[in-house]
Amino acid sequence: MAARMTSIEPIHFPPIAPANTKVALTDGERAVTYAELDRFANACASALLNGAADLAEERIAFFLPASVDYVAVMHGVWRAGGIAVPLNTGSAIPELEHYLSCARVTRLIAGADCPAELVALCNRLGVNVVDVADLRDAPPVTLPTVAPERRAMMVFTSGTTNKPKGVVTTHANIAAQITTLLDAWGWQAEDTIPLFLPLHHVHGIINVLNCALWAGAKVDLFRRFDAPAVTRRVADGHYSVFMAVPTIYVKLLDYMDALEPGAADAIARGFGAMRLNVSGSAACPVPLFEQWRARTGQVLLERYGMTEIGMALSNPYEGERRAGHVGMPLPGVEILLVGEDGNTITTEGQPGEIRVKGANVFLEYWDNPKATAESFVDGWFCTGDMAVIDKGYYRIMGRTSIDIIKSGGYKLSALEIEGVLLEHPAIAEVAVIGVADATWGEAVAAAVVLAPGTTLDEESLRAWCDGRLSSYKMPRMLKVVESLPRNAMGKVTKPDLKPLFS
Ligand code: MLC
Ligand code: AMP
User: Fold this and answer.
1) Which domain does 53 fall in, by range?
2) Which ligand is nearest to the CA of 284?
3) Is 262 a member of any domain?
4) Where does ligand 1 bind, in terms of residues with CB under 6 Å?
5) Residue 112 resides in a domain
6) Residue 481 falls within a domain, yes or no?
C-alpha cells in the first residue's frame, strides 16, 4: 500500500514524490518519472509566478489534451497558488467564451496547435495565451505555501440553469476526495491504469489521475477513448485497475463481440486479471453488470459521485458488490436522505433526495452566491438525485429535475441546449429531453415547433449546431410537432414528450 498522509499538506499537493524514479505517466510520446514530473510541475509554477510570490488564486485555464503537459500545468498552477481551470478541448467557441469570461481567466495555457478562433477569442477577452513550451524549462524559484482552505480548481458543470456553473473546490476538498478513495479502493504504488476519460471532469481528474499520482501508481494517458489501443494493452496484462462510464463498458462489449474469438478472449482475460474495474458517472444497468461479469469474470464496482462532491457512495472493494446499487457512504462522507416533506428518511425503501456533508464538498459556485446558497440546506449539499436504501445499500432512483440529462457520463442541461436551438431560424419553440438509450444511458432528443414556412431535419440541425455546441450535446433525435404539450400554467409538460421518441 502507498504511504498515507495523516494530515492535509498545504503544498505540493497532491504529493508527487520528488525522489521517486518510477514512471508516473506515459502519454504516447513520452514516459516521465515522478522525479521528472515534480521538476516539470515546479518549472511550470515558477514560470507562471514570473517573479510574483503567489498567484493569489488567479484563474489559469488550460486547453491541453491528456498529456504530461496537462498534468504538469495543473500541478504547477496548484503549487503557485492559482486556480486551475481545465477546459474541454472539444468545446465550441461560444462555450469556451462562457468559461473564460465567467471564471475571469487571465491566462490560458495551450500548445502550439491552439485553434486560431480560440486565440482570437482570448485576444478579444484580454486573456493572455501562453505556449506550454515556454513553461517547461523555467528555473525553479521558491514556491508559496498554499493553505488547504484556498481555492484550487474550477470545473464547469451543467445544471438546471442555461449556462454551466463553475464548481470551485479547495485544496482540502480535493485532498479529501482523493484520500477517501485511496483507502476504499486499495490504491497501490504497483497499480497501472489507463486514462481515456475527458480531463475536464472529476471522474478523470480525481478518481483516475490524481488518485493514481497520490498513490505513486502509473497512468497511461490516451487522448480519447480508443478501444483498439486501450484493449491491446489490456490484453497484454498491462493494467491492474480500470475506471470508466457505463457507455464505455457497452462499447467494449460491442468491440469484443466484433472481434474473432481468440482476440476477444485475450482482452476479456486481461480485464479478468485486474484487481478492480469501476463503473460510475451514470447508472450501470443490471444487464450490463451481468454481461461484464459473464464476459470478463469481473464484478464491476459501481459508485456514485458528482462534480460538487467527488465520490460519495461506493460498493465495497471487499465484500458484496450489488448490481443496480451504489453501495454505502465512503469514509468521511455523511449522507442524508430527505423526503418530499422535508423530513429525514429513516426507514429502508422510502425514496429521498441525497444530501451530502463532509470535507469533500465543494466551496462554492464561482461568482454565484445565490446558486451556492440555494444548493445547501442546513449545511447539507442537495444533489438533486433521489435514492432509497435497500438492504443496507443505496440505490439511485433518478433525479428531481427532468432538465438534467446524462449522456455517456456527461451531464447536460436541457435548458442550455434549448437556448442554443432557439437561435435557429426555423425553430419557434423547442423542448429538449433525455430518452433512455442502450449505449448512452440517455440520448438528447428535441421536440420542435417550426417557424411558419420552414422545414428542418436531423442532419441539417446537427450541421447547424457544429461550432455552437459541443458535439455530445447535439440532439440525436428530432421530432417536429404542431405544438408542445403544456400545463395550465403554460409550462411544457416534458414527460408527455417521452412517448414521441420511444
Ligand atoms: C461522444 N458522442 C456522444 C458522447 N460522446 N454523444 C452523446 N453523448 C456522449 N457522451 C458522439 C460524438 O459527438 C460523435 O458524434 C460520436 O459520438 C463519436 O464521438 P467519439 O468522441 O468518437 O465518441 P467516443 O470516443 O466513443 O465517446 C464516448 C465516450 C465519451 C463515452 C468515451 O462520451 C466519454 O468520454 N464520456 C465520459 C464523460 C465523463 O467522464 N463524465 C464524467 C463527468 S464527472 P458524431 O455525430 O459526430 O459522430 C461525473 C461525476 C462522477 O459524472 O460520478 O463521475
Ligand atoms: P456531474 O455533475 O457531471 O458530476 O454528474 C453527477 C451526476 O451523475 C450525479 O448527480 C448523478 O445524477 C449521476 N451519477 C453519477 N454516478 C452515478 C451512478 N453510479 N448511478 C446513477 N447516477 C450517477
Assistant:
1) 23-171
2) 2
3) no
4) 197-198, 201-204, 224-225, 245, 247-248, 251, 280-281, 305-307, 407-410, 440, 471-472
5) yes
6) yes
